[in-house]
Amino acid sequence: MGVDISSTGIKLVELGKTRHGYELKAMSVVPLPRDAIVENTVIDSMAVAQGLLDAIEMARPSTRNVAFVVSGNAVIIRTITIPTMTEFELEPQIEFEADQHIPYDIDDVYLDFQILGPAPDDDTQMEVVLAACKREVVEDYQLVLNEAGLTPKVVDCAVFALENAAELLADEIDVVSVPEAVVDEEDVQTYALVNIGANLININVLHDGKMAFVRDQFYGGNNLTEEIQKAHGIGYQAAEQMKLESFSSIKAEALESFYVGLTSELVRSLDFYAASHAEHPVQKIFLSGGTALVPGIAGELEQRLGIEARVLNPFSVIKADERKFDRDYLDRIGPMMMVPVGLALRSFDA
Ligand SMILES: Nc1ncnc2c1ncn2[C@@H]1O[C@H](COP(=O)(O)OP(=O)(O)OP(=O)(O)O)[C@@H](O)[C@H]1O
Ligand SMILES: [Mg+2]
Question: Domain limits of the chain?
């Protein structure tokens, strides 16, 4: 079961595996008060624990074991290049290596690594992904999950959960059209997974199936809500409601400001990526997160960025019992559930 505790709420997804693929077993989405999670850390643990209890009661999952997610400033992900060695050899050295790349005191973080493979231009070296998260942030999530009777088994980073969920959709994603002229370049593909939530964008650029760039950026649906507040002279709640319930009455200027901001944030990341990967430009963008539900967002970004964009829905490939789940509802909120789906998939890792 995956549990995504984010700024606007808790998303719980339990998946099962059958011979014919994955099946949705339980799901719930429970809103949280605005100050419960701030900048991706637990502030009001009582409210979060209560939200978890509500989520469990609604979903009635068959397990209490969960994978949860961390994101934002507490998380540091770096790809480093070091002399080739086995995982077994690297394990005792990893803190030493990490110390030079992680801006926090190494004793204050949880640390993990994964060997990516040989470095592209030097076969005595290999690339390793380091992932670190501040201990207190992880522990606060663990505490609140325990309080709700849940057993945290796995902690993941949002960008990795996103990548896991995208693997489910490989058939849809792998259809990047390669122009005839560059067919020689085989069908090596570069695409960006862009998950836009309320306060955060999680970006993961994959080249040839491998993580080439990740970043969490502070921008999202809250910025649109704020633009609506300004343009219409209304409060936060009213603006949020307008966004969700009468989108067509939003003034064009509010949408324009939101898109200008969003585009410049994305360009910033894409430029950063391009600075070290100029030969592999991003060919396609796959959107998810609650803000991917903004009507017309893929077309807007496609125009503004000049890169093909599409919205991903993990439920397009996950079976669900029609007596328990409403298909239309699943397909409507699907893009918002990419991260919790990616978390739930972790239970099937060896
Ligand atoms: N139908 C919709 N149309 C427009 N915006 C929507 C819609 N549904 C949800 N949103 C927006 O999506 C955002 C919530 O998305 P999501 O659940 O992915 O964020 P979150 O995970 O809670 O936040 P974060 O990860 O940034 O802390 C909110 O800003 C919400 O207003
Ligand atoms: Mg989120």
Answer: 170-311
